[in-house]
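Bumping with the actual sequence this time:
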Amino acid sequence: MNICLFTPSFLPDIGGMEVVLDKLARQFQYLGHKPIIVAQRSRHNTEIPKLPYKVIYYPRPRSSVWLLQYVEHVLMREHKRHRFDIVHSHLVYPTGYIATKLKKRLGVPVIITSHKGDIIPESRYRQRFITRKRMCWALENADAATSVSSALKNIIDELTSNKANTIVIPNGVDIPSDIPGLMPETCAKVSGKDFMLTLGRLHHYKGLDVLLNAVKLLSEQNTEIPHLVIAGDGKEMGNLRRQTAELQLDDKVIFTGAVFGDQKHWLLRNCVFFLQPSRAEGMPLTVLEAMAYGKAIIGTKISGISELVTNGENGLLIEPGDSVALSKAILILLTTNKIEQMQQQAKVFASQMTWPIIADRYLKLYEELLM
């Protein structure tokens, strides 16, 4: 099967969607299919990564509202070259809209996958009348729309008045190897010691300001707690560093910056538990990854996280934005005798969400649409 994965963002940009696309492409190729990624060129990076499957980059259009004809031309051109059996668009707009608009000319099924940021109420595309209208039309007219969580399915159903063929297919995870990994240089002070970990893009919606306040509350109670390692980079880095200094937590908090490969593996392998105090999520890959390492999770009662974490079984759930509840949850995991059971349950859950399982669900959907 020739599978076009059509996306407005891909490697070398790093984010949840880019990781999902890479994992799916690798699985499809391993199973004997031919994945071809058609992706918008990165705004920030110029070095193209070497990948085991074909990637076609197209220039970024000057306007994502009025100047999409060139992107349409690229998709049609590559279809003529490679004869796609299916076009799987990631994000509803603009790629989902473009593929659905060209569906008759392509003559193949079109699937749209939402990864949260494109359809939530705060989305700039949803807030503009014309792009919102195009998004709804695309979702209603695509052969199928998939979402990574049931909450996102509900948003799609609401946007389309239940006219979309919406299916939930969650994100997947790799089962980690037993190699020790490579400790980031910034983590020398926690070598051989317990530490708490949060990992991902540093954005306001991740709730890391709440986490720092929770750590401060515990320190004011003279509670002995492990260091907090904040791994990742993003536009909130400066604010979080300032907050850390203002709260006098420099001796308790370590910022590693972006981590990949062996360093990320070391952090996930050696942390005592994982924190995801987000205000909003689609389905966070970092939570799934931590669970695959057998780590208990402290997360928030929001869509995406609450579909992965069962309170009291594989982690603890609190209300978003509540630093007092978060500090209490941290204390519970540090003192409870149930953490080993939570760790085991986390690992069992992750084993049911591996990338081969998730890729197979997509392939079955493709086959159904091709019948």
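The tokens above came from a reply further down the thread. The CA atoms of residues 172 and 355 lie 5 Å apart.
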